[in-house]
Amino acid sequence: MRTASEIWTHLSSVMAGLIFAWATPQLRMHIEGYAHKAVGHVYPYIEVTFPEFAGERLERSEAYIAIQNYLNASASARAKRLKVESGKDSQSLVLSMDDDEEVVHEFEGVKLWWSSSQIISRNSTLPLPYRRFYRLAFHWRHRQLITLSYIKHVLAKGKAVAANNRQRKLFTNNPSSNWDSSKWNHVAFEHPATFDTLAMESSKKTEIMNDLLKFKQGKEYYARIGKAWKRGYLLYGPPGTGKSTLIAAMANFLSYDVYDLELTTVKDNTELRKLLIETTAKSIIVIEDIDCSLDLTGQRKMKKQERDSDEGKAGPVKRMTKGGEESKESKVTLSGLLNFIDGLWSSCRGERIIVLTANFIEKLDPALIRRGRMDKHIEMSYCCFESFKVLARNYLGIESHPLFTTVRQLLEETKMTPADVAENLIPKSDDEDEEACLEGLIETLKKVKEYARKKLEEEEKAAAAAEATAARAMTEKAAAAAAWSLIVLTFDKLRNWG
């Protein structure tokens, strides 16, 4: 029988051997490997790890971000230890699960565990001093359910949360001389317009929203028909009919960023294509007032010829000045714009909407607005009674009023834009109530109606005067022709007598 000292001596030798083996990296790897295998035979749970950074460039994992959003929305209510971060508006607070915390979830009756951990790296050469990761644990019997269904469910929910919570951006393009910093500048997109507050007929709003939803959910459909995942909208109508407001409502409805493209600052077609490449998916690219921003028809060539002719007659100093000004002009052509909207490069990003706005659709080249480029044409017309009711609810907080009948009759007889109607509904002082605003609107509508009547009368008088002048000119011309014929006939008779 061994004595106590012998036992302690033996244990000390074993411990010294284990410490030596653990201190040796190669031996430690073997020990850890055997230990994991041994535990795996008796441990009934499977663990899946989702690191924060992955790949050769250590880019932040999209899966990690989606899981973080998912757990922030659901698991933070169950966790005992939480951490606080500022929200997208820097004013609200977001609670999330703290490091080394675990929460229990259930999915289709199956219990599973989420934990958040971090490992501090001992390698000083790594760019990050620590590595965060999420670990999902579940019983091995539910491997198929978790790997095939639950993880996809978590990623989809997490991406949806991110889309709803992210701060949307409004971009505008820089002149090419400032491209050292960026091709696009952006600010936070905070336009409050929604389809609920949009002054438009309800049937038209429903049609537009259904079209947008069909597009947003149509990735597989567009791939099946062999078409780039994009859609063109043409908004046309007089100024003040709500074209820009509709674009803002579309962006808020889809949670898309907005790229406001100013064509006059784009040097040529090549730069236009570069700007397109720099845009992202889930965005709306807007070119406002396309009928006014650039001359994209053959008239530009005629105007250039006229300028060249004038330049030839000008002095050398004036020619140098004109040459400097012309070099700054945009050389974007209709062909370049068509390729931007519908060419090969337009498919470099998916899930994008291109919107053109115009005051006068008849000025646009048919090739620019054909179906396939501008798939949906939306006329933004003058204010109707249904649009007025939306404005009355927005500005005055009322759904009905005895004066609505008078307003309806006048709107049917008068052309007034929603912007002008809204301006008349804004209270100008604290003493002005909804009835005073409606009476002011009625008075304005009567003035517009009277002005339109007088203008029509003047146009009719001018047309009648022009018609009378033309008739008088025709009579004088006919009389002159008859007199001349008489003179010629008299001259011929005199010549025959002679």
UniProtKB/TrEMBL annotation:
Protein name from the UniProt record: AAA+ ATPase domain-containing protein
Entry similarity comment: Belongs to the AAA ATPase family. BCS1 subfamily.
Cofactors, names only: Mg(2+)
Ribosomal protein in keyword set: no
Gene3D superfamilies reported for this sequence: 6.10.280.40, P-loop containing nucleotide triphosphate hydrolases
SUPFAM superfamilies: P-loop containing nucleoside triphosphate hydrolases (SSF52540)
Keywords: ATP-binding, Coiled coil, Hydrolase, Magnesium, Nucleotide-binding
Organism: Eucalyptus globulus (Tasmanian blue gum)
Signal peptide location: none
Coiled-coil positions: 442-476
Segments for region (Disordered): 301-327
InterPro entries in UniProt: AAA+_ATPase, AAA_N_dom, At3g28540-like_C, ATPase_AAA_core, Mitochondrial_chaperone_BCS1, P-loop_NTPase
UniProt cross-references to PANTHER family, sorted A to Z: BCS1 AAA-TYPE ATPASE
Catalysed reactions, semicolon-separated: ATP + H2O = ADP + phosphate + H(+)
GO MF annotation terms: ATP binding; hydrolase activity
A GO BP entry: response to stress
Residue stretches making up the AAA+ ATPase domain: 229-384
Lineage per the UniProt record: Eukaryota, Viridiplantae, Streptophyta, Embryophyta, Tracheophyta
Pfam families reported in the protein's UniProt record: AAA, AAA_assoc, AAA_lid_At3g28540
